[in-house]
Design goal:
With about 300 residues, the protein is α/β, with parallel strands linked by helices. It is built from 7 helices and 9 strands. The protein has a 5-stranded parallel β-sheet with strand order 2-1-5-6-7, sandwiched between helices. A hairpin with a 2-residue loop joins strand 8 and strand 9 (about 275). About 55% of the residues are buried.
Length: about 300
């Protein structure tokens, strides 16, 4: 349990990676783009952290999908507020990201401060930390094939699932955050709610390749899909456009081999790009897919 708790704290403290899509015919022309979100939008990295847009403690990567999208669109103004460990509370509240003083630190100002009345494109990527999914996933770490499964901490014998309840309870909060962002942007701005990749399978496990009981891994996959369903409803209710990164990423989960998986497992190493990784977060291949999905949404979006 001490190992699980340490891993949970580490994951909760680190935010979630993107690539270089072509700037071909991408539809409507945008001029001012603001990216808001958590670690899966920051595509966090433990090395090569970029600090031109946010403090080092946000751990933004140079290849995150907002940077790729901004480059492909050729926007005049780009502001990236994405930050590891952010919740939708940090849309309107500052976030202290001091983890290792002098190495990873700083305060990320309220993310909505990057949105102005001339902002015509916003990406919004929150939800996972609002429901505590990263901590739950860390609690499923099982280096040995013995011991209790992590689902028992969440699912009662009668089938009541506390994580499902958290997901349902978070929906009104996400709706309010999206509405606040929409109201802060230009009147005709495009607000895109970006979901989470299919990083965890729902129909199989792969112990010991990924160190979690197979049933636990499938439960996590089901909760991730449930979270995305809630985000789609929230986007619809708030008058935003939902971006589906999940469907196109099926088959690229943590159980796949390097070069095929777009989300890393518990081992903090990756081949994409080679080096250290943030566990249970997208690698650069995942970031590339996120960027492609956003650009596809931009291309089909009618202003």
């Amino acid at each position: 349990m001490k190992v699980r708790r340490s891993l949970a704290l580490a994951l909760a403290a680190l935010p979630l990676l993107a690539a270089h899509p072509a700037a071909a015919d991408i539809g409507p022309r945008y001029h001012e783009y603001a990216a808001l979100g958590d670690s899966w939008s920051a595509d966090v990295t433990p090395v090569g952290i970029q600090t031109d847009q946010a403090p080092s403690g946000c751990a933004q990567s140079s290849w995150n999908y907002p940077r790729q999208v901004a480059k492909a669109l050729g926007v005049t103004t780009f502001r990236d507020a994405t930050c590891g460990a952010a919740t939708s509370d940090h849309v309107r509240a500052a976030q202290d990201v001091t983890y290792v003083s002098g190495l990873l630190d700083g305060v990320n100002e309220p993310q909505i401060s990057r949105v102005t009345k001339t902002t015509d494109l916003v990406t919004f990527g929150f939800g996972g930390n609002d429901i505590g999914l990263a901590g739950a996933a860390a609690g499923c770490f099982a280096p040995l094939p013995v011991g209790e499964d992590c689902r028992s901490e969440w699912v009662k014998p009668d089938g009541t699932d506390a994580m499902s309840r958290r997901i349902a309870d978070a929906e009104p909060k996400l709706v309010r955050a999206i509405e606040a962002v929409r109201d802060a942007a230009a009147p005709d701005a495009t607000v895109l709610v970006v979901d989470y990749l299919a990083g965890v399978p729902v129909d199989h496990g792969c112990y010991p390749y990924v160190q979690a009981h197979n049933g636990d891994l499938m439960w996590l996959g089901a909760k991730l899909r449930e979270l995305n369903g809630m985000l789609k409803r929230a986007a619809d209710r708030a008058g935003a456009t939902y971006v589906d990164t999940y469907s196109g990423s099926v088959g690229h989960d943590v159980c796949r081999q390097p070069g095929t998986k777009w989300v890393e497992g518990f081992v903090p190493l990756t081949t994409d790009p080679p080096g250290l990784a943030v566990p249970l977060h997208p690698n650069r291949l995942g970031a590339d897919h996120q960027a492609r999905s956003v650009l596809d949404a931009v291309k089909t979006r009618k202003k």
